[in-house]
Amino acid sequence: MSVSQVSVPAGSRLILGIESSCDETGVALVASVPGAVPQLLAHALHSQIDMHQAYGGVVPELASRDHIRRVVPLTRQVMAQAGCRLPDIDAIAYTKGPGLAGALLVGAGVACALGTALSKPLLGVHHLEGHLLSPFLSADPPEFPFVALLVSGGHTQLMRVDGVGRYTLLGETVDDAAGEAFDKSAKLMGLPYPGGPHLSRMAESGRADAFDLPRPMLHSGDQDFSFAGLKTAVRTHLLRAGLLDQPQALAAPERAGWLADLAASTQTAIVDVLVKKSLGALKVTGLKRLVVAGGVGANRQLRAELNEACARRRIRVHYPELHLCTDNGAMIALAGA
Ligand code: KG4
Ligand code: ZN
């Protein structure tokens, strides 16, 4: 769903959402309309990626300090964009976890201050519940029940979802998350943080069958995942090629084709596991609807392969809008609503 320019729907309640769990400060205002899907009125986001890139990953202390700088101006921006004033807000939702402690504290602190000043209730939202519900802000919102594939930088889970708050965990990663597998493999290949989108771009010109990489737990018969071995296999290929911890050699133009092949093979290994396990969860539950959420849900190959596999089985797949796949305030406001 696009951000509406329209006025606030009659009889609705306004929920402000604040996300600050990691490296994105997100603020949004959602109108909760009785009997209807909540409506996103305005949202604003500041990504810290540029700031952390120099360090090859998120520096928690820098993240917290940047959230402090951004959260109030972003809140003002959202209120102005929606044409609303702070006293119009009916409740304040914020990410209560999981995430970086200092970063979470910033959002929680601002939410508590606003709630106290405005005498409005606070709603602590689980970050993954925000991701899980984010497809409800799309043009094609899902209906309950469905299987959810949650694939973020820190989590990989398959869930049966029967309604808001009615979640049954079907399986999850026993070690690295899918996003972590993308990011760690990308880092080994000399790509900037966060590696997922960079690796994905490089994979476009590579051959997916160039390297035989492991697909751990593919045939384990359950809905659990394991991605740590994949990163180790990528490391081994780089070591054998004399490219491990060799940034200059990795950046050499004559290596580009080899690296693109490794990237394509890595992405395909991750996508294969995610698709197979999602199909397994759909089979076990007998459900005909899949919802994909979290940053890795933006991956084009994952979307293409899930779409194809599900179309063959008459299963509907729903995604959040691309800009709402990664962390944002809209999903937190929505979960609050
Ligand atoms: O959900 P998210 O924004 O933050 C967490 O809650 O962790 O997910 C971030 C993760 C990172 O690992 C990032 O590399 C990955 O999502 N990601 C992607 C893509 N876009 C983001 N991974 C693969 N392909 C993408 N296009
Ligand atoms: Zn997230």
Q: What is the tally of beta strands? A: 10
What portion of residues belong to β-strands?
A: 15-25%
Helical residue percent band: 40-55%
Bound compounds, each kind once, are: 5'-O-[(R)-(carboxyoxy)(hydroxy)phosphoryl]adenosine, zinc ion
Which residue ranges are poorly predicted, with pLDDT under 50 across at least 5 consecutive positions?
none
Largest sheet: 5 strands, mixed
Given the helix and strand composition, which structural class is it? alpha/beta
**Cα distance spanning the termini:** 16 Å
Shape: globular
Mean pLDDT: 95
Number of helical segments with 4 or more residues: 11
How are the strands of the largest sheet arranged? 3-2-1-4-5
Q: Any idea what the radius of gyration is?
A: 21 Å
The SSE order reads EEEHHEHEHEEEHHHHHEHEH
What brief labels describe this structure?
337 residues; alpha/beta; five-stranded mixed beta sheet
How would you describe the overall organization of this protein?
The protein is 42% helix and 20% strand. It has helices spanning 49-53, 60-82, 101-118, 127-133, 178-188, 195-203, 228-240, 247-251, 256-285, 300-312, 329-336; strands spanning 13-19, 24-32, 39-47, 91-97, 122-126, 146-151, 156-163, 166-172, 289-293, 316-318. It has a 5-stranded mixed beta sheet with strand order 3-2-1-4-5, with helices on both faces. Strands 8-7-6-9-10 form a 5-stranded mixed beta sheet, with helices on both faces. α10 links the parallel β9 (289-293) and β10. α5 (178-188) runs antiparallel to α9 and α9 (256-285) packs parallel to α10. Residues 127, 131, 152, 294, 327 line the site of zinc ion.
